[in-house]
């Protein structure tokens, strides 16, 4: 709940360093984890290779559930990276939070609305782009906004905005509220000394466990909805 | 982006973060593709192909083995029949050869006997004829000697007899 932000301006563009550093850390963790898991690839999988293949099978099954067939296979890398990045981001703030000068440099990057909106914006832009690429602009417009009934056009347009907002805010809200409650319990433990510290410890542990669960679910939900939105744009209804 | 302006208005919009996260994510995708995703998925595809081809190969070799097995069975059955046929043929061949050899031997023996008889008869005839000629010649020479020297029959009879006897013996040896 550190509202402080370390804002630096490069080329006239304001960067919130307090939000960028955790993203970099999460990306680094994802990369080194995957790099570590994918060493010594063999025909007969053993140990680490089984782990990464299990994750790939899992993300591929998410794609298959919304887009069966060969069309979905090209999204495998995107969904795999998106899932692992969001998953690691969600868990990062539960384990470690480092605050320097009222600015938190290590936390969940997904607890910031700019991060989740960037990710949601990216995947929806991709979905619209693929829709136009596949059907042409006229076909895309007809498929997205005029079907099944043309007079629902205003609602269809509105839906695109709500899709974007719900996708971004669902992830942000879940992770941010989880971090807020973690910090609240931490503050509560200090209020009455030992009398509040003792009940606060199991409470914090329970909430951390629950947040791990929430973070996993939200990562899964985010990539599933990503695939749903993409498949809506590239498949005729 | 308008939604971001609305939400971000409360604490200021650091829209550099959007660029940062976009670039970060794209770089992450590229790195993971190069180091993890590419090798892993190509290996998984290779494995899937290998498994499919292994299944096909197993099916093929099983069919081949079954075919060989049935061929072997048929060959075994055939070989039993063939063996008994060969034995039968050998038996009949042996019988035939045996009777042929015996017949041949019989024929040869009779032919030899016949030849020997004929030879003996001819020899005898020849011997008799030559003896006749010799006797006549001797008789003539003896007669001429008797006439020339005036010999007594009694004196010379033993000599003539022994002479004739020697000739007969000579013929018999022939």
TrEMBL record, chain A:
<keyword id="KW-1133">Transmembrane helix</keyword>
<feature type="transmembrane region" description="Helical">
    <location>
        <begin position="75"/>
        <end position="98"/>
    </location>
</feature>
<dbReference type="GO" id="GO:0005886">
    <property type="term" value="C:plasma membrane"/>
</dbReference>
<comment type="similarity">
    <text>Belongs to the ATPase A chain family.</text>
</comment>
<feature type="transmembrane region" description="Helical">
    <location>
        <begin position="151"/>
        <end position="172"/>
    </location>
</feature>
<protein>
    <recommendedName>
        <fullName>ATP synthase subunit a</fullName>
    </recommendedName>
</protein>
<keyword id="KW-0138">CF(0)</keyword>
<keyword id="KW-0406">Ion transport</keyword>
<dbReference type="InterPro" id="IPR023011">
    <property type="entry name" value="ATP_synth_F0_asu_AS"/>
</dbReference>
<keyword id="KW-0812">Transmembrane</keyword>
<dbReference type="InterPro" id="IPR035908">
    <property type="entry name" value="F0_ATP_A_sf"/>
</dbReference>
<feature type="transmembrane region" description="Helical">
    <location>
        <begin position="205"/>
        <end position="230"/>
    </location>
</feature>
<comment type="function">
    <text>Key component of the proton channel; it plays a direct role in the translocation of protons across the membrane.</text>
</comment>
<dbReference type="InterPro" id="IPR000568">
    <property type="entry name" value="ATP_synth_F0_asu"/>
</dbReference>
<keyword id="KW-0813">Transport</keyword>
<dbReference type="GO" id="GO:0045259">
    <property type="term" value="C:proton-transporting ATP synthase complex"/>
</dbReference>
<keyword id="KW-0375">Hydrogen ion transport</keyword>
<keyword id="KW-0472">Membrane</keyword>
<feature type="transmembrane region" description="Helical">
    <location>
        <begin position="21"/>
        <end position="38"/>
    </location>
</feature>
<dbReference type="GO" id="GO:0046933">
    <property type="term" value="F:proton-transporting ATP synthase activity, rotational mechanism"/>
</dbReference>
<dbReference type="Pfam" id="PF00119">
    <property type="entry name" value="ATP-synt_A"/>
</dbReference>
<keyword id="KW-0066">ATP synthesis</keyword>
UniProtKB/TrEMBL annotation, chain B:
<keyword id="KW-0138">CF(0)</keyword>
<dbReference type="Pfam" id="PF00430">
    <property type="entry name" value="ATP-synt_B"/>
</dbReference>
<feature type="transmembrane region" description="Helical">
    <location>
        <begin position="20"/>
        <end position="40"/>
    </location>
</feature>
<keyword id="KW-1003">Cell membrane</keyword>
<keyword id="KW-0813">Transport</keyword>
<keyword id="KW-0066">ATP synthesis</keyword>
<dbReference type="GO" id="GO:0045259">
    <property type="term" value="C:proton-transporting ATP synthase complex"/>
</dbReference>
<dbReference type="GO" id="GO:0046933">
    <property type="term" value="F:proton-transporting ATP synthase activity, rotational mechanism"/>
</dbReference>
<keyword id="KW-0812">Transmembrane</keyword>
<dbReference type="GO" id="GO:0046961">
    <property type="term" value="F:proton-transporting ATPase activity, rotational mechanism"/>
</dbReference>
<comment type="subunit">
    <text>F-type ATPases have 2 components, F(1) - the catalytic core - and F(0) - the membrane proton channel. F(1) has five subunits: alpha(3), beta(3), gamma(1), delta(1), epsilon(1). F(0) has three main subunits: a(1), b(2) and c(10-14). The alpha and beta chains form an alternating ring which encloses part of the gamma chain. F(1) is attached to F(0) by a central stalk formed by the gamma and epsilon chains, while a peripheral stalk is formed by the delta and b chains.</text>
</comment>
<dbReference type="InterPro" id="IPR028987">
    <property type="entry name" value="ATP_synth_B-like_membr_sf"/>
</dbReference>
<protein>
    <recommendedName>
        <fullName>ATP synthase subunit b</fullName>
    </recommendedName>
</protein>
<comment type="similarity">
    <text>Belongs to the ATPase B chain family.</text>
</comment>
<dbReference type="GO" id="GO:0005886">
    <property type="term" value="C:plasma membrane"/>
</dbReference>
<keyword id="KW-0375">Hydrogen ion transport</keyword>
<keyword id="KW-0406">Ion transport</keyword>
<feature type="coiled-coil region">
    <location>
        <begin position="48"/>
        <end position="78"/>
    </location>
</feature>
<keyword id="KW-1133">Transmembrane helix</keyword>
<comment type="function">
    <text>F(1)F(0) ATP synthase produces ATP from ADP in the presence of a proton or sodium gradient. F-type ATPases consist of two structural domains, F(1) containing the extramembraneous catalytic core and F(0) containing the membrane proton channel, linked together by a central stalk and a peripheral stalk. During catalysis, ATP synthesis in the catalytic domain of F(1) is coupled via a rotary mechanism of the central stalk subunits to proton translocation.</text>
</comment>
<keyword id="KW-0472">Membrane</keyword>
<comment type="function">
    <text>Component of the F(0) channel, it forms part of the peripheral stalk, linking F(1) to F(0).</text>
</comment>
